Amino acid sequence: TYQVSNTISNSSQGRFIFNESVNDMVTYNGRCHIVGAFTSITDTVTSTVYAHSYWTVFDSRTNTFIAPPSAINALIRTIDISPNGKYIVFGGDFTTIGALTCNRIAIYTISTNTFSQLHPTYTGVDNSVYSVKFGKLIQGTTWDYTIYFGGAFINGNSAGVLNRIAKFTGITTAIGAGVNGQVNAVCPDEVSNYML
């Protein structure tokens, strides 16, 4: 079992037990979005068992977990929230969320409680995504922010060869020629230079 303590507001040490690993989490507006390999969470105070697979949302105002809106078919490794709080980007091993095909990367729109592909013609990448990060605001486009992502993938369906690192700015493109080894973390700065 895995314990999440002192990272979730209003929780005491060891109160919430995840049956498998927690990989990443982000907090926004009183809610903590938690992703990982888990398929259930036990509240040791109330004995409530939440059957939430790979993603859950902890509400610090009610001390409860909220189920995701759609079933996710495999583990989520990484998560990030846009600076304006509108979007969450997910990366991992999944290939579907509900009826949506989204190979290892997807966007969640908070206001509509819905998932989508990065782009209608872009269903994702051919191997795991280990890191996702929002970068700088893009002015004058239909998309708000640059999204950087890295992992073990080589190809992105309509984007062609990406070689383990890419960015999305309304379209998905490779960053240079990519890299020759797995990318475990990406970290863009204020001007969207990036570090691996």
* Helix percent band: under 10%
The chain-level structural class is mainly beta
Could you tell me how far the N terminus lies from the C terminus, measured between alpha carbons in angstroms? 31 Å
What is the overall shape? Answer: globular
Describe this structure in words.
The protein is globular. Helices cover 0% and strands 42% of the residues. It is mainly beta. It has strands at residues 2-4, 16-18, 22-28, 31-36, 41-43, 49-50, 55-59, 64-66, 76-81, 87-92, 96-97, 100-101, 105-109, 114-116, 129-137, 145-151, 155-156, 160-161, 165-168, 172-174. A hairpin with a 5-residue loop joins strand 9 and strand 10. The two termini are 31 Å apart. The strands form six sheets. Strands 1-2-5-6 form a four-stranded antiparallel β-sheet, with no helix packed on it. Strands 3-4-7-8 form a four-stranded antiparallel β-sheet, with no helix packed on it.
Mind sketching the topology for me?
Elements: E1 2-4, E2 16-18, E3 22-28, E4 31-36, E5 41-43, E6 49-50, E7 55-59, E8 64-66, E9 76-81, E10 87-92, E11 96-97, E12 100-101, E13 105-109, E14 114-116, E15 129-137, E16 145-151, E17 155-156, E18 160-161, E19 165-168, E20 172-174
Antiparallel strand pairs: 1-2, 2-5, 3-4, 4-7, 5-6, 7-8, 9-10, 10-13, 11-12, 13-14, 15-16, 16-19, 17-18, 19-20
Features:
20 strands; 196 residues; mainly beta; four-stranded antiparallel beta sheet
Structure, briefly:
This protein has strands at 2-4, 16-18, 22-28, 31-36, 41-43, 49-50, 55-59, 64-66, 76-81, 87-92, 96-97, 100-101, 105-109, 114-116, 129-137, 145-151, 155-156, 160-161, 165-168, 172-174.
